[in-house]
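hiii, so i know i said id send this last week but things got crazy w the move. better late than never?? heres the sequnce for the chain we talked about at the cafe, plus the structure i predicted for it. fair warning i was half asleep when i ran it
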Amino acid sequence: VVADNCTDGTAEAALAQGAHVYRRFHNTRIGKGYALDFLIQNIYGDFGKQYFDGFFVFDADNLLAENYITEMNKIFSEGFRIVTSYRNSKNYGDNWISAG
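okay and structure toks below
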């Protein structure tokens, strides 16, 4: 989990569930791209580039079907390097940002 400029308890909640958490605070490099770059660089630094076969990217408000990871893993196992899919959001109708 990358807790990006979080002050809402995200890091603590993730840690309590056993997740690896990387905390990031930056005043000018704001946004998901910077957060993901920070996360990947830290994962590579901690585990090396060959440790994981791939990554899933989710937002905290995404809702997944029970078999989502199993089904996506089948696609990765077929040799695809990059895959996208439909992920529902629990706050889809809150505002125009969450609807995007």
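btw The helical segments are 10-16, 32-47, 68-77, 96-99. thought thatd interest u
miss u guys!!
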